[in-house]
Design a protein that fits this description.
The complex is a heterodimer of chains A (205) and B (460). By secondary structure, chain A is mainly alpha-helical. Chain A is built from eight helices and no strands. The relative contact order of chain A is 0.15. Chain B folds into three domains: 261 residues, no CATH class; 66 residues, no CATH class; 88 residues, no CATH class. Helices cover 60% and strands 6% of the residues of chain B. Chain B is elongated and about 95 Å long. Classes of the chains: A mainly alpha (205), B mainly alpha (460). Chains A and B meet through α3 and α7 of A and α3, α5 and α10 of B.
Chain lengths: 205, 460
C-alpha cells in the first residue's frame, strides 16, 4: 500500500482528483444556468453541444497531464510493478472522471447526456494518453484540444448532422462513436500503461 | 572563453543588440517553434473547411479571424508552459543573479513565443487571402476582422504567459489552453442579451456584399484586446519585479483599456441589436447582367462567377411558365433582407448568403437554386387573400414549385414521408405528363393556382 501511496503522490493524484471534481461541479453549474436560459432546448443549439464536449475536454487534459512521471529513467529502470501502478492510477482517474461528469449531467434536459459525457471523456483521454507517447505528458493536451476544436468548428455537415469523423458530436448510444471512444481509451491506457510516456528535457516537477 | 564572450557583448554599440541576441536565442529555444507547423496546418485545415465555394472577401476576413479560435488557445498553453520554464529547470535563482533585468527576460521569452503564433496566423492569413485574390473576388478584404484575429492571438499569448508565470502547476498550461478556447467559443452561442455574447472577439457576424459586415465591432474589440495583452504582459513582469513602477503603470493602463474596450463593445453590441443590416448604406457597385433571353439575369459583381450557371438555371426553371401573368422576364439580385418584388416584369431576389459558420454549407448549387424564387411566383404574394388559403391549396402550390425545382431529375419520393410524400408524388405525376399538356394545364389554372383556389383533386 505504501508503494501505491507514494506512486499516487508522485503523480499529484490528489490534485488531479480535485481538478476532476472541480470540472464536474463547474459543468453542473454552467449547465444549470445555461439550460435555464430562454432559447436553450433539448433539440440542440451551439451551447448545448458545447456542454457535451467542453467538460470532457477539461477532464481529459487533466488525466493526460496526470500521467507525467517526475522520475523518468530512474523509475523505469528500478520501479516495481510499474505497468500495474500506471494502469491502476489511470483507470481510477478515468472512472472518477466519467462518474463525476455523469453525475453532473443526471438532471440535464438532454437525451443521453450522462452517457455522452462519459463516452467523450474516455475517448478524449485516450487521445491525450496517445499524444503523451509522442510529446510527453505535459504537452498531451494538444491532441484532445485540437480534435475537440476541429469537431466543434467543422464537425457539422451542411444539414446540421455531425460528420462521421466528429464522433464527439454524435448522439450518446451511437455505436460508431462509442466504438471510437472505447478504442482510443483502450489504446491509450494499454500503451501508456505498459510503456509509459515520452519524456521531454526539463519536464521535472 | 568567458573573456571572449564578455568582450564580445561589450563591443555592442547598443542595448538593443543584446536584446535582439536574446530574442534570437529565445525564438530558437521556444516551444512555439515546435508548435508552429502543427498549429499552422491545423488552423489552415479548419479554415479551408469553413470557406464557401464562392470567393468573397467578407467571408475570407471572417475565416482568417476565426483561425484565432485555435491559434490563440494553443499559443496560450505554450506561453504558460514557457513562463514556468526557469522554475521547472531550477534556474530561477541563477538567472536572478545575472546583469540582465528580469523584466527584459520575461519580455523576450513571451515575445519569442508569441512571434511563432503570430507567424502561424500570418501564414494562414496569407494563404487564405491569396486563395481569395487569385479566384478573382470582388472588392477588397475588410481589415477589422483580420486585425481582431491578430490581437486575439496576441492577447491569448500574453494572458497564457501571465497565468503560467503566477500559477505553478503541471495543470496550468492545459487548463489555460482549454479555458481560453471555451471563453472564445462558448459565448458565441449565448443570447444577444448576455454581455458575454458581445465581448468575445470571434462574435458571429453577418455579411453582405451590399452592406459589408454587421455588427462590425472591430475597433471596440481591438481596444479591449490591446488592453488585455498589455495588462497581462505587465502582470507577468510583476511576478519578478513587484515594485517596478513601469510594470505597475502598464498594468493599470492596460486594465483601463480593458474597461474602456468592454464598455465600447457592450455599447456597440446593444446598438447593433436594435439595427438591421439594411440600415447601413449600400456599398457602391455596378451589377453585371447576362441579357440572354427569354429571362435576363443580373447579379452583384461579387457573384460574377455564378452568372452563367444562374442564367442557365433560371431559364431552364422558368421555361414552362414563360408568358404567364406575373412571370418575370428579368431576375435581379437584391440585398440581404429584401423580399422578392415584382415590378415591371422584373423579379428581385435576395442574395441569400449568410456568412460565418454557415458559409461552409453554401455550395454553388444551393446558392443558384435559392436565387430562382420559384415559390414566390407560384404564390401571388401581392394578394392578401392568399395568406388565408387552406392547407390543401398550399399543397398544390408546393407540388408545382417542387416540380419546377426538380424538373428533369428523378423525384426521390420514397425517401420522404408525411405531407411531403403526397407533394412529391403529385409533382412526379405532373412531370410524367407531355410538355404540351403541362403547359395547357398551367395556362388554364395559373391564376387560380397563384390565388390558392385549387385543391389536390384539381391536379392531374
Amino acid at each position: 500500500m505504501r508503494l501505491v501511496g507514494l506512486y499516487l503522490k508522485s503523480r499529484r493524484a490528489s490534485r488531479s482528483v480535485t481538478c476532476l471534481a472541480g470540472v464536474a461541479g463547474l459543468g453542473w453549474l454552467i449547465a444549470r444556468w445555461l439550460l435555464s436560459q430562454p432559447g436553450a432546448s433539448a433539440e440542440g443549439g451551439i451551447p448545448l453541444i458545447l456542454l457535451l464536449v467542453l467538460p470532457p475536454l477539461y477532464a481529459s487534459v487533466i488525466i493526460g497531464v496526470s500521467s507525467h512521471s517526475p522520475f523518468g529513467d530512474v523509475e523505469r529502470s528500478s520501479g516495481r510493478w510499474l505497468p500495474a501502478l500506471r494502469l491502476g492510477h489511470l483507470v481510477g482517474l478515468l472512472a472518477l472522471g466519467a462518474a463525476g461528469l455523469s453525475l453532473a449531467a443526471l438532471r440535464w434536459d438532454l437525451a443521453h447526456a450522462e452517457w455522452t459525457l462519459a463516452r467523450n471523456m474516455l475517448g478524449l483521454a485516450g487521445l491525450a494518453l496517445l499524444c503523451a507517447l509522442v510529446t510527453g505528458s505535459k504537452l498531451s493536451w494538444i491532441a484532445p484540444l485540437a480534435f475537440g476544436a476541429a469537431a466543434l468548428l467543422t464537425g457539422l455537415g451542411p444539414d446540421g448532422e455531425p460528420l462521421r469523423w466528429a464522433w464527439l458530436l454524435h448522439a450518446g448510444p451511437d455505436s460508431l462513436a462509442v466504438g471510437m471512444a472505447l478504442g482510443l481509451a483502450a489504446a491509450g491506457l494499454g500503451i501508456v500503461g505498459f510503456y509509459g510516456t515520452a519524456e521531454m528535457a526539463g519536464e521535472a516537477e | 572563453m568567458i573573456g571572449v564572450k564578455v568582450s564580445h557583448l561589450r563591443g555592442r554599440p547598443s542595448e538593443w543588440f543584446a536584446l535582439s541576441d536574446m530574442m534570437r536565442i529565445e525564438a530558437r529555444r521556444s516551444i512555439g517553434r515546435a508548435f508552429f507547423p502543427a498549429i499552422a496546418v491545423l488552423a489552415g485545415f479548419l479554415a479551408a473547411g469553413s470557406l464557401a465555394e464562392i470567393p468573397l472577401w467578407i467571408d475570407t476576413s471572417i475565416v482568417v479571424r476565426d483561425t484565432a479560435l485555435v491559434l490563440g488557445p494553443v499559443l496560450a498553453g505554450a506561453a504558460a508552459w514557457m513562463a514556468g520554464r526557469e522554475r521547472v529547470r531550477g534556474m530561477e535563482e541563477l538567472l536572478e543573479s545575472t546583469a540582465r533585468p528580469a523584466g527584459a527576460r520575461t519580455l523576450t521569452t513571451a515575445a519569442a513565443t508569441t512571434l511563432w503564433g503570430v507567424l502561424a496566423y500570418a501564414v494562414v492569413a496569407a494563404g487564405l487571402i491569396g486563395w481569395t485574390y487569385f479566384r478573382g473576388a470582388w472588392g477588397e478584404p475588410p481589415i477589422w476582422p483580420i486585425v481582431t484575429g491578430l490581437l486575439t492571438v496576441l492577447a491569448c499569448a500574453s494572458l497564457g504567459y501571465a497565468l503560467g508565470a503566477w500559477l505553478h502547476s503541471r495543470f496550468t498550461a492545459p487548463l489555460v489552453a482549454v479555458a481560453l478556447f471555451s471563453v472564445l467559443y462558448f459565448p458565441v452561442g449565448l443570447p444577444e442579451t448576455s454581455p458575454l455574447h458581445w465581448l468575445t472577439p470571434t462574435i458571429r457576424m453577418e455579411g453582405s456584399v451590399y452592406y459589408g459586415l454587421f455588427p462590425n465591432l472591430g475597433l471596440e474589440h481591438s481596444v479591449f484586446l490591446t488592453g488585455l495583452a498589455l495588462a497581462s504582459l505587465a502582470a507577468a513582469g510583476l511576478r519578478r519585479a513587484r515594485m517596478s513602477p513601469v510594470a505597475w503603470g502598464i498594468t493599470l493602463a492596460g486594465s483601463f483599456l480593458v474597461a474602456v474596450g468592454a464598455g465600447m463593445v457592450w455599447a456597440g453590441g446593444y446598438r447593433a441589436e436594435s439595427m438591421f443590416a439594411a440600415d447601413l448604406p449600400v456599398i457602391p457597385h455596378t451589377p453585371i447582367c447576362n441579357e440572354r433571353r427569354p429571362v435576363a439575369v443580373c447579379v452583384h459583381p461579387a457573384y460574377k462567377s455564378l452568372l452563367e450557371d444562374l442564367s442557365a438555371h433560371a431559364n431552364w426553371t422558368l421555361e414552362p411558365l414563360l408568358g404567364l401573368p406575373g412571370v418575370p422576364e428579368r431576375l435581379e439580385q437584391g440585398a440581404v433582407g429584401m423580399t422578392p418584388e415584382e415590378a415591371g416584369g422584373t423579379l428581385t431576389f435576395a442574395d441569400g448568403l449568410t456568412l460565418g459558420p454557415a458559409a461552409s454549407s453554401q455550395s454553388k448549387l444551393s446558392v443558384i437554386s435559392s436565387a430562382v424564387p420559384v415559390y414566390d411566383l407560384v404564390v401571388d404574394l401581392n394578394n392578401p387573400a392568399v395568406a388565408a388559403t387552406g392547407e390543401d391549396a398550399r399543397k398544390v402550390q408546393d407540388s408545382i414549385s417542387y416540380w419546377l425545382y426538380n424538373r428533369g431529375n428523378p423525384f426521390p419520393c420514397k425517401e420522404v414521408s408525411g405531407n411531403w410524400r403526397t407533394i412529391c408524388e403529385a409533382a412526379e405525376r405532373f412531370e410524367q405528363m407531355q410538355p404540351t399538356r403541362q403547359r395547357a394545364w398551367l395556362e388554364e389554372n395559373w391564376a387560380d393556382l397563384r390565388a390558392g383556389k385549387l385543391g389536390m383533386e384539381d391536379l392531374p
